[in-house]
Specification:
single chain; 172 residues; alpha+beta; eight-stranded mixed β-sheet; 5 helices; 35% strand
Length: 172
């Protein structure tokens, strides 16, 4: 059974090994790291910067086999009702088995019940179709503005990638 818990520094050694190449790494991290590959220390140092903020929640998914997924939840508003999911990744040996969906459903429950979020948003690169399908399957929809999806162009690895904004609201 998959469970979600706060991230521990020892999780980093697993997470940094889940990227087969720089493209997979950048689909996870975008431009948030200056180099590839990163080390466990690099990941821990990045999270240490926000470790004592009460708006930043790195989380780890695990089951009887060990650490299987990771993500970050962070508030993006003063009222702490608008939460952003990011750095979402599943162990590369377990992709396509429903772990991402289970992890995100657990995170949505945590966001609503424990953190009191009213809205959750995330961004996904349009070249990451498996992630996009996963997010759609659990209720995320594209953020629309003027009848068009909200997208942002980002320079990644010398190319222009498109980030599609998605969101989900919780019923009152």
């Amino acid at each position: 059974m998959l469970k979600l818990r706060p991230y521990k520094k020892c999780d980093a050694q697993h997470i940094v090994g889940w990227f087969a190449d720089e493209t997979a790494f950048r689909k996870w991290s975008a431009d948030r790291y200056d180099k590839y590959p990163i080390t466990a220390d690099d990941l821990n140092d990045k999270y240490e910067e926000s470790a004592y903020d009460d708006w930043f929640y790195p989380m780890t998914a695990y089951d009887e086999s060990g650490v299987v997924g990771h993500m970050v939840m962070r508030f993006v508003d003063e009222e702490k009702t608008d939460l952003r999911f990011g750095f979402i990744v599943v162990d590369s040996t377990k992709r396509g088995m429903g772990y991402g969906k289970k992890m995100l459903l657990a995170a949505l429950g945590y966001a609503s019940e424990f953190l009191g979020a009213k809205r959750v948003s995330l961004g996904v690169f349009d070249n990451n179709e498996p992630a996009y399908r996963c997010y759609r399957s659990i209720g995320f929809g594209e953020v629309m503005e003027g009848g068009e999806p909200v997208c942002e162009k980002v320079a990644i690895m010398g190319e222009e990638w498109t980030v599609v904004e998605m969101e989900q609201f919780f019923d009152e």
